[in-house]
Task: inverse folding
């Protein structure tokens, strides 16, 4: 159902860096801003990054976003145990059959 | 504090109807588009519907078009989702989500409610 593809899981040791990719197409990522959301088990998603690389107030600069062509990337540096969560990318889609599309989701594990 | 609180979820039989609500507080509700996003158990996020700040424009995912109706009452700071002809695949947590602009298209989802669970089962 998801039209944006993410790796199912990524992992790294505390203090290390992880990157999460989000692959789409010209109808979505290629021509629209990308957002990233963080979701802990049993809780609502939270906006982490918007407009490709902007952080809402209160989001630490350990989280960063970028976009190139039809792909986007979320980076987390100085990984902490509290960063263990699911991460989703999302963007608007200009095709006839879709409105807003989310990625498949990535589970971040801190080793 | 900006807050969205959903209510009205529950167990409904296939083919039945249900209305879920979202109560907003801590911001000027009438100037922002609001959206519904759902998440089936153990699954990812799915965009369901959006409504412009004045209620004049509404949008629906193909999966719910013709069965769900989004509406809002700006005098009460309330958002609604009326769901009919419910199917097992509509079983999910339904989140109310605030946008950052008045229109639906290309909005940013900055505040999420805690969600309300809708279960469609006989």
Result:
């Amino acid at each position: 159902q998801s039209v944006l593809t993410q790796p199912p899981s990524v992992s790294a040791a505390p203090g290390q860096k992880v990157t999460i990719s989000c692959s789409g197409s010209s109808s979505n990522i290629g021509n629209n801003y990308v957002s990233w959301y963080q979701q802990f088990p049993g809780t609502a998603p939270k906006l982490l990054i918007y407009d490709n690389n902007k952080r809402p107030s209160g989001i630490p600069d350990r989280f960063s976003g970028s976009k190139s062509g039809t792909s986007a990337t979320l980076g987390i540096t100085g990984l902490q145990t509290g960063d263990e969560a699911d991460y989703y990318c999302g963007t608007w889609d200009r095709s006839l059959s879709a409105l807003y599309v989310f990625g498949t989701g990535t589970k971040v594990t801190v080793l | 504090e900006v807050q969205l609180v959903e209510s009205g979820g529950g167990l409904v039989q296939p083919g039945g109807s249900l209305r879920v609500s979202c109560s907003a507080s801590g911001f000027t509700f009438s100037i922002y588009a609001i959206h519904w996003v759902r998440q089936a158990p153990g699954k990812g996020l799915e965009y369901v519907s959006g409504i412009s700040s004045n209620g004049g424009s509404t949008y629906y995912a193909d999966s719910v078009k013709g069965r769900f109706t989004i509406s809002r009452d700006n005098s009460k700071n309330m958002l609604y989702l009326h769901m009919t002809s419910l199917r097992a695949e509509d079983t999910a947590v339904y989140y109310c989500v605030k946008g950052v602009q008045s229109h639906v298209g290309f909005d940013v989802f900055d505040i999420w409610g805690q969600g309300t669970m809708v279960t469609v089962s006989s």
